[in-house]
Amino acid sequence: MRVRDRATLDLLILAAVHDEPGDGAAVAGLVRERSGGVVELGPGTVHRALHRLERNRLVHRPPGTTGYRLRPSGTRVLRRRRRDFEQWVDVVKAVLPAGGDDRGR
User: Fold this and answer.
1) Cα–Cα distance between 91 and 60 in angstroms, integer?
2) pLDDT in tens, 71-82
């Protein structure tokens, strides 16, 4: 499954880095593993996102390492985006027809 928007991509990457700091391949592998193989993030996608998150001071690579870690600001942003995403999911579920009934009426 393709991640279609930057906000969701950032949320997945920040969550992965939060739980297991690592390089782009490790981050992509963790997202793939946790999604049961449903979400496949290409290496270019992950690396571009990590560099953008680094420029925005949400992640960093400590000297002498290749793995990314969350900065305190990244932890705060992850917490806020997770809360916002969970609220969004609740809203979408409330609007969808009950019981998966998607027939028009």
Assistant:
1) 34
2) 999 999 999 999
Would you kindly state where each structural domain of the chain is located, as residue ranges? 6-93
Note every long-range contact of 29-38, with CB atoms under 8 Å and residues 24 or more positions apart, other chains counting: 35/1, 38/1
Cα dist from 50 to 21, 87, 89, 102, whole Å: 12, 25, 25, 38
CATH number of 6-93: 1.10.10.10
Largest distance between two CA atoms of the chain: 61
Please say if the pLDDT value at position 102 is more than 80: no
pLDDT at 104 over 60: no
Phi, psi of 5 (to 5 degrees): -135, 155
Contacts of 81 (CB under 8 A, 6+ apart): 7, 10, 11, 14
pLDDT of 98 higher than 90: no
User: 14 in the Ramachandran plot: left (φ > 0), alpha (ψ -120 to 50) or beta?
Assistant: alpha
pTM: 0.86
